[in-house]
Amino acid sequence: MASRYSIKITQEDCGFSEHLGANIPHSLLHIDLGIRCISSLNQDITFEIFNRSGTGRRDVFLSEENARNIIHSMVADSGVTREFVDTVLVPDILSHARYADSLHVNLGCQVIRLRVEILVDVSFDDEISELVDELLTSSVNFKPASKSSIESLKRAKYWDDDHCLPLKKRRNLGKDFSSRKGCAVCLDEFFNGNEITSMPCGHVYHYGCIVEWLETSHMCPLCRYQMSIN
User: Fold this and answer.
1) Terminus of the chain with fewer CB atoms < 10 Å: N or C?
2) Whole-structure pTM over 0.90, yes or no?
3) Hey, which residues does 216 pair with through a beta bridge?
4) Which residue blocks in the chain are alpha helix, DSSP H?
């Protein structure tokens, strides 16, 4: 399932310090961080929402090492990858925090409050992703296909003239393959030279994709045709 994201970081008013009490010994930074996953087909549909807030000493957070540790702890159970945190979240949030700290308008502001909004736009290939997700989350499907049934799959190379070139000898296998132009497992299009295979039900996939799938689930991702199991 492909996805795109956008990040919006804004500073909110300094009145938040009133909620923390009158005596604040240090200048503080407060972060409200939210992640929202939406459908690219309908942005009113939200699949998942994650919210975290944290307040700490501003001078501590403005250190890159400390900022990384704090942000990692904030999103630890969000499913966000470490690479995304290190390469995107930390640099963006830290740069905004340092900029806000340097602004003349923030002099004397005991608490700088940043709102970090991450919007993940999840794209779908019609109903294919929903079918794949349904299969992945259904425990009844987690029975691998037998080794012999996987080895029996026909292997061919894809060509955009709807003809297939076998790995060992050339013959037209087009009648055995469906007209779909992409793999419903990885959702990528087929390109000339890709190694593909046809399930007994007629649905076509990248050979490597469907083999990996069948090692976990014995059902066709599209029609639930059942391969033999051990």
Assistant:
1) C
2) no
3) none
4) 58-61, 64-74, 82-84, 90-102, 128-137, 147-151, 207-214
Q: Please indicate, yes or no, whether residues 11 and 115 belong to a single structural domain of this protein.
A: yes
Q: What is the dihedral of CA 74, 76, 81, 86, to 10 degrees?
A: 40
Residues 180 and 108 in one domain: no
Beta strand ranges found along 123-207 (DSSP E): 154-158, 164-166, 195-198, 204-206
| Amino acid identity at 164 | C
Task: Mark whether 168 and 190 lie in a shared domain.
Answer: yes
Residues in the chain: 230
Q: Are residues 11 and 104 in the same domain?
A: yes
Asked if 24 and 133 sit in the same domain, the reply is no
| 8 A C-beta contact, residue 197 and residue 205 | yes
Instruction: Tell me the residue range of the domain where 117 lies.
Output: 3-122
CB atoms within 10 A of CB 85: 19
pLDDT by residue for the chain (230 residues), tens digit each?
445 778 999 998 765 544 444 455 678 899 999 888 776 655 555 556 788 888 888 999 999 889 999 999 888 888 788 888 899 899 999 999 999 989 888 887 888 899 999 888 765 444 445 544 554 444 444 578 899 999 999 888 887 654 444 444 333 444 444 445 788 788 788 888 899 998 888 888 999 999 988 888 888 877 778 888 87
The token duo for 223 is 């029609």
